[in-house]
Specification:
The longest helix has 19 residues. This protein has 3 domains: about 90 residues, no CATH class; about 40 residues; about 150 residues, Nucleotidyltransferase, domain 5 (2-Layer Sandwich). The chain has 12 helices and 7 strands. A hairpin with a 4-residue loop joins β2 and β3. α9 runs parallel beside α10. It is an alpha/beta fold. The model has no long low-confidence stretch (mean pLDDT about 80). It is about 45% helix and about 15% strand. The protein is globular and about 80 Å long.
Length: about 350
């Protein structure tokens, strides 16, 4: 059977493009050089990792010639290269933020305990009169917080208005060439339904406002919209949302837990999809996200939705036939159904 395989490889080599054949020969020669090392256990050096990371960018079928390592290993090398690149690009001579002195920390806690009705701005003003210039975020971190909130909790608020709430957020995705692409998502809270999404390399307030219009083209605009304090939501965005009859709920600075559903969605996208692929460009990212969101809406189960998907799936009883697997998101996930 060996000669049949050799003959098949010969035919494939004849029919393929010369550039692709040259790339495969280069990949095989590089792996052969690694295996010919004198040590009993050949080790991959840094230049070997760089070689495969670069080859994966210029040759689409690089996985077929990879024999000594797994494709996921090459993806991990690319992630490490991306982190090293931005660590080098962001290097500075500073050692970081100066620590708050213990005296000031204790004073913040003391003022908070002795004056339970004081908020962060009031404590900040008193500290300024004592010669201590401290940011509001620092005071909010060290002061005592009352156990009982002064108003209704977020849980109560969401239960009463969940059908009229949407949340928006941006997250970044690195490409194979270390460019940054921004992804915008609009999420309804009641069924975790992704209403709209888009990608761009240069986000603006006008573009973001247009995305909201496209997400709610008719009389479907929600009552509340939760967002963070990113500067991308400028005056143009705020005016457009106001004219649509939507009331903005702006979360506190550096408080992503106050927009939990969107943050959880972004985490799921990364863990279940983007962490396992190398994005080439905006069109490639759009195609990947379109496939993932189809899986997210129609197949992926959520504990908060009674273990069902955002677009509810019916229960298929055993009498309807055997179970078959349908690959989704390029085979990263599967949907299981009963075949009649």
């Amino acid at each position: 059977m060996g000669w049949i395989r050799i003959f098949g490889l010969f035919l494939r080599g004849v029919l393929r493009d010369r550039t692709e054949l040259a790339a495969e020969n280069l990949a095989l020669r590089q792996q052969l050089a690694i295996l010919q090392q004198k040590s009993k256990t050949p080790r991959l050096r840094r230049r070997d990792r760089i070689f495969w990371a670069l080859l994966s960018r210029i040759w689409a079928d690089w996985r077929s010639a990879l024999l000594i390592v797994l494709p996921d290993t090459v993806v991990r090398w690319h992630r490490e290269g991306f982190r090293l690149f931005w660590r080098w690009k962001s290097r500075t001579g500073k050692v970081g933020r100066l620590k708050i002195k213990a005296e000031i920390r204790n004073l913040i806690r003391r003022m908070s305990r002795e004056n339970p009705l004081w908020g962060t701005p009031r404590i900040q003003s008193e500290l300024a009169l004592l010669g201590h210039v401290v940011a509001e975020s620092t005071i909010d971190e060290y002061r005592d917080h009352p156990r009982k909130p002064p108003s209704q909790t977020w849980r109560t608020f969401l239960d009463n208005h969940v059908k009229d709430i949407v949340a928006v957020d941006f997250f970044t995705v690195p490409t194979a060439t270390f460019r940054i692409i921004f992804t915008f998502v609009v999420l309804r809270h009641d069924r975790r339904h992704v209403v709209h999404f888009n990608v761009t390399a240069h986000p603006t307030a006008e573009c973001t406002a247009q995305q909201i219009v496209e997400a709610f083209p008719f009389d479907e605009a929600p009552r509340f919209l939760i967002r963070d304090r990113d500067s991308i939501y400028g005056a143009f965005f705020q005016e457009r949302v106001k004219h649509m009859g939507i009331q903005e709920v702006v979360i506190a600075p550096r408080s992503p837990w106050k927009n939990p559903y969107c943050e959880r969605l972004v985490g799921s996208i990364r863990r279940e999809c983007l962490d396992h692929v190398i994005v080439l460009n905006e069109r490639h990212l759009m195609r990947i996200l379109r496939s993932y969101f189809h899986y997210y809406l129609h197949s992926r189960t959520h504990l908060s939705l009674e273990r069902n998907s955002p677009i509810e799936r019916e229960v298929e009883l055993p009498c309807r036939g055997s179970v078959v697997a349908i690959p989704e998101v390029g085979g990263l996930h599967h949907r299981y159904r009963r075949a009649a």
